[in-house]
Amino acid sequence: MVRTVEVVGAAVFLITLPIISISGCFVPTQPMPHALRVIAEWNPLSSLALALRKLTIDEPMAPPSAQLPLHHPALSTLIYSIVLTALLAPIAIRAYIRRTSL
Questions:
Q1: Cα–Cα dist 84/77, whole Å
Q2: Tell me, what's the pLDDT at 38?
Q3: Where in the cell is it found (predicted)?
C-alpha cells in the first residue's frame, strides 16, 4: 500500500502525462504516424475533446479515416466513463474500507 500522498501524486502524474500527450486534445491526429494515430484516436481524452468541440463550436466531425470513437465522440465518452467507473470504483472502495477499518 502507498504510504504518502506525494507517492500517489507522482504515480498519477507519471500515468496521466503520457495519456494527455498521446491524444487529440492539443494536436490533430491526422499527421501522426499510423500506430500513434490509432492509439491517440482510441484515447478517451480524444473523444472527450472532440465531443466538447462539436457541442461548443460545432467543429466538423472526424475524417472518414478516423477510428470509431472519433465518429461518435459523445457516445464513446459516455461508454469510456461507465467502463472506467465500473473498473476503478470497486478498487477505490476496497482500498478505502481497508484503510479506514484499522
A1: 10
A2: 92
A3: Membrane
